[in-house]
């Protein structure tokens, strides 16, 4: 297994640590959760950079990288809903987009095609990670402050736009599937 794939797996292994830090009572544990989330988020950028620059792109990497991102983001968002810092309906929108794109990837896989993350999907993930870090650091409901509101709108907007973009760019894969 190459280094980029190990970094993606490390991102998955950070999830239970973040969840535990968010569950445990303690005044400063949100800082620890934010630090682990930041490290996990940085592995996302690092694994992609290493894979492309050292020609280590693999089909497993194309699979595990977006899955690790989704697990990290959705797990943390669910914990933020539990802490009443993020609205559940926002997670529903994000989850619907992720499952729809994963369904498209399954159709593509059945036709021998691997759909790697696109540029809008990468922007969406980056915005989600920035918003989550903001919430972990400032521990206030996302809709309670203008910065949170702007991040929330950007995240949901890019979530929807990037989902539409995946289907637009890969519409040929769906022909004859209905």
Show the helix and strand layout.
Layout: H1 3-23, H2 29-53, H3 59-82, H4 88-110, H5 119-138, H6 146-169, H7 171-174
Features:
7 helices; single chain; mainly alpha; 178 residues
Q: Indicate the radius of gyration in whole angstroms.
A: 17 Å
Per CATH, the class reads Mainly Alpha
CATH homologous superfamily classification: CDP-alcohol phosphotransferase transmembrane (TM) domain
Report the span from N to C terminus: 38 Å
CATH topology: Four Helix Bundle (Hemerythrin (Met), subunit A)
Q: Can you tell me the overall shape?
A: globular
Number of domains: 1
Contiguous low-pLDDT stretches (5 residues minimum) are none
User: What is the makeup of the main sheet?
Assistant: none
Helical content stands at: over 70%
Annotated CATH architecture: Up-down Bundle
Count of helical regions = 7
- Summarize the helix and strand pattern as letters: HHHHHHH
Report on this structure.
The protein has about 180 residues and is mainly alpha-helical. The protein has one domain (about 5-175): CDP-alcohol phosphotransferase transmembrane (TM) domain (Four Helix Bundle (Hemerythrin (Met), subunit A), Up-down Bundle). About 80% of the residues lie in helices and about 0% in strands. It is built from seven helices and no strands. The chain has helices at about 5-25, 30-55, 60-80, 90-110, 120-140, 145-170, 170-175. Helix 2 packs antiparallel against helix 5 (about 120-140), helix 3 packs antiparallel against helix 4 and helix 4 (about 90-110) runs parallel beside helix 6. The chain is globular and about 50 Å long. The mean pLDDT is about 95.
């Amino acid at each position: 297994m190459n280094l980029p794939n190990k970094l993606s797996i490390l991102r998955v292994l950070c999830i239970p640590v973040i969840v535990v830090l968010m569950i445990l009572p303690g005044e400063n544990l949100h800082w620890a959760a934010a630090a682990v989330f930041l490290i996990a988020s940085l592995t996302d950028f690092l694994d992609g950079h290493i894979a492309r620059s050292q020609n280590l792109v693999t089909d497993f990497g194309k699979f595990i990288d977006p899955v690790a991102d989704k697990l990290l983001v959705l797990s943390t968002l669910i914990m933020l809903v539990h802490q009443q810092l993020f609205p559940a309906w926002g997670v529903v929108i994000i989850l619907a987009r992720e499952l729809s794109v994963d369904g498209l990837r399954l159709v593509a896989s059945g036709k021998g095609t691997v759909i790697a993350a696109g540029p809008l999907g990468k922007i969406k993930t980056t915005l989600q990670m920035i918003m989550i870090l903001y919430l972990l650091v400032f521990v206030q409901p996302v809709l309670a402050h203008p910065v949170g509101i702007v991040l929330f709108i950007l995240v949901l907007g890019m979530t929807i736009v990037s989902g539409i973009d995946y289907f637009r760019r890969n519409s040929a894969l769906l022909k004859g599937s209905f």
